[in-house]
């Protein structure tokens, strides 16, 4: 039972970590369509902004000036939290691989292997919380930005939605959290 639970938690953690990495690297955190005719589709991300022409499918991307340049707080905080979550999830995966019962590393000392699984669960939990805070921070800021435009009657047909990268970050963080719970609470 313990080995099956470890492998299940590892599979979930691996998939969720890949989701977190993909969310950090992709650039569709916020989607807006500038007009009601939907001639263009704009995705803003942590690293660049891309516009897709809906008629011919041509996509052009503009890189942000520099990583060290002045950026809005939501981009800086989300970058920091997501990169930290990625690093912690990667460290947790490496620790979990060494702590799995099916791996022959430290086979003679099962107590150490169990502690490694617990440690991986704690590290994965910390990474998942940081990733969830980063994703939700960005989503709330997008919602507040849209609400400010609507409340000041500057709506002008612009609508903002959460992009698939934002949803992917939330899903990856939630999956890492579930894997963390499996490793820390359900593993005997």
Automatic annotation (TrEMBL):
<keyword id="KW-1133">Transmembrane helix</keyword>
<keyword id="KW-0965">Cell junction</keyword>
<dbReference type="GO" id="GO:0005198">
    <property type="term" value="F:structural molecule activity"/>
</dbReference>
<feature type="signal peptide">
    <location>
        <begin position="1"/>
        <end position="28"/>
    </location>
</feature>
<dbReference type="InterPro" id="IPR006187">
    <property type="entry name" value="Claudin"/>
</dbReference>
<keyword id="KW-0472">Membrane</keyword>
<dbReference type="InterPro" id="IPR017974">
    <property type="entry name" value="Claudin_CS"/>
</dbReference>
<dbReference type="InterPro" id="IPR003927">
    <property type="entry name" value="Claudin16"/>
</dbReference>
<comment type="function">
    <text>Claudins function as major constituents of the tight junction complexes that regulate the permeability of epithelia.</text>
</comment>
<feature type="transmembrane region" description="Helical">
    <location>
        <begin position="87"/>
        <end position="106"/>
    </location>
</feature>
<protein>
    <recommendedName>
        <fullName>Claudin</fullName>
    </recommendedName>
</protein>
<keyword id="KW-0732">Signal</keyword>
<feature type="transmembrane region" description="Helical">
    <location>
        <begin position="162"/>
        <end position="187"/>
    </location>
</feature>
<dbReference type="InterPro" id="IPR004031">
    <property type="entry name" value="PMP22/EMP/MP20/Claudin"/>
</dbReference>
<dbReference type="GO" id="GO:0005886">
    <property type="term" value="C:plasma membrane"/>
</dbReference>
<feature type="transmembrane region" description="Helical">
    <location>
        <begin position="118"/>
        <end position="140"/>
    </location>
</feature>
<keyword id="KW-1003">Cell membrane</keyword>
<keyword id="KW-0812">Transmembrane</keyword>
<comment type="similarity">
    <text>Belongs to the claudin family.</text>
</comment>
<keyword id="KW-0796">Tight junction</keyword>
<dbReference type="Pfam" id="PF00822">
    <property type="entry name" value="PMP22_Claudin"/>
</dbReference>
<dbReference type="GO" id="GO:0005923">
    <property type="term" value="C:bicellular tight junction"/>
</dbReference>
